[in-house]
Amino acid sequence: MGAGRNHYDALDDYTSYSLAWLAPILYPLTLAIVAQGFVLADVFYSNAGRRFLPQMSFLSRAGDDSGAKSSSRVPRMDPRLNLAALFIMVSEIIFAVCCIVQCSINYSNRAFVGTSTACDVQAIYATYYVFSAIGLAAFGIILGWRVVSVGDKAVLFKTSSICVAALLIHAVALFVALLPFFGLNGWMFANDYCMFDIEGPLYCTLFLAVYFSAVLCISFALVQTRLAVATAPMGSAAPKRTAYRLLAGTSFYLFIAWILTVVIAFLWIANGEVYGSSLWRIYGAQAIILHSNQLVTPLLFGWFWRHAMQAVLLSSEVDSAEAA
User: Fold this and answer.
1) Would you say 191 and 8 are in contact if contact means Cβ atoms under 8 Å apart?
2) Do residues 85 and 301 lie in contact, with contact meaning Cβ atoms separated by under 8 Å?
3) What pTM did the predictor assign?
4) In this model, does residue 36 exceed pLDDT 60?
5) Phi/psi at 242 (nearest 5 deg)?
6) Beta bridge partners of 66
């Protein structure tokens, strides 16, 4: 076991389990990549005022033909919504593609191919994913709040603001993933995969700080969104109310999706060990739940969020025209 690498001595004895083709290779990774492809196609089509994916009935605004076919002409999607959704999806796509390749190779060989080097690579992209995904999800909720509250005039909704904020989140997450190269501890082999060493003071503290900071920011954004909905003009009240419900539901999912990692962190704080204890199977559950994000998050932000925010913007334009 090298410096900053925890439980790497178990890599030589690792044998891929027989149902790895089912979980995580088929579900959720294969399904996730298919879903991501559909969402990316919808983003591409929407730039030309067309739909690849249908707009769900609960997202339809008054006067919009929610029953239109996916090829029907619709108002062109605001490019800033597409841009924000793509930034949020980047880490999900990277994680899904890298994991399905590495998991398939390991399953085919019934071993952890590449041992410590491959484990390092996986730990880097897994760590980048965790810290970027939490930050980007919070960014999406906050951006949704600003669109509902201020609409097209929101400073955060400027193209430059979206790019700077999203790129900063990605850059910080990558830097955090590379901390072991600076002599800081470390990465770990967690039963079937490699990740940041959550059973160590550095990454445990960083993860909990990022998670609870995101929870606070999201909670504040939801409260402010609810207040904006309560004072919305009649024409935009319904789309804004729907957008708020979507943001609240998305926030609840994100809380559930990451809570098991929080539990692992607190178990380590309380007991001093998780991987080497009777609770080691929790890492397997964590892997499936986190991989489910690659399926769910693109649908939430790349499909539902985009259409909900678009409905808010269109209804706000109607309110402005009527006021004039």
Assistant:
1) no
2) yes
3) 0.93
4) yes
5) -65, -40
6) none
Q: Give the 3-state secondary structure of residue 187.
A: strand
| CA nearest neighbour of 287 among 43, 95, 82, 66 | 95
Bigger pLDDT: 234 vs 239 = 239
- Closest by CA position to 44, among listed 17, 7, 66, 77: 77
Q: What is the model's pLDDT at position 191?
A: 87
Contact 188, 6 (CB under 8 A): yes
Q: Where are the domains of the chain?
A: 5-55+72-318
Give 196-236 pLDDT, tens digit per residue.
Answer: 999 999 999 999 999 999 999 999 999 999 999 999 998 78
Average pLDDT in the 75-103 region?
97
Given a contact cutoff of 8 angstroms between Cβ atoms, the answer to whether 242 and 59 are in contact is: yes
Answer whether 54's CB lies under 8 Å from 306's CB.
Answer: no
Enter the tokens of residue 105.
């190779």
Quick count: other Cβ atoms within 10 Å of Cβ 161? 16
Condensed to tens digits (0 to 9), the pLDDT of residues 258-313 reads 999 999 999 999 999 999 999 999 999 999 999 999 999 999 999 999 999 999 99
Q: Tens of pLDDT along 265-278?
A: 999 999 999 999 99
Contact 149, 226 (CB under 8 A): no
Instruction: Report helix, strand or coil for 3.
Output: coil
CB 134 within 8 A of CB 214: yes
Contact 78, 313 (CB under 8 A): yes
Residues contacting 122, CB < 8 A, separation 6+: 98, 99, 102, 193, 194, 195
d(CA 189, CA 10): 8
Q: Residue 229, class by beta-carbon neighbours within 10 Å (0-12 exposed, 13-18 middle, 19+ buried)?
A: buried
Pairwise CA distance, residues 321 & 309, whole Å: 19
CATH of 5-55+72-318, one of 1.10.150.120, 1.20.1070.10, 3.40.50.720, 1.20.1250.20: 1.20.1070.10
pLDDT at res. 60? 56
Bridge partner list, 187: 5, 196
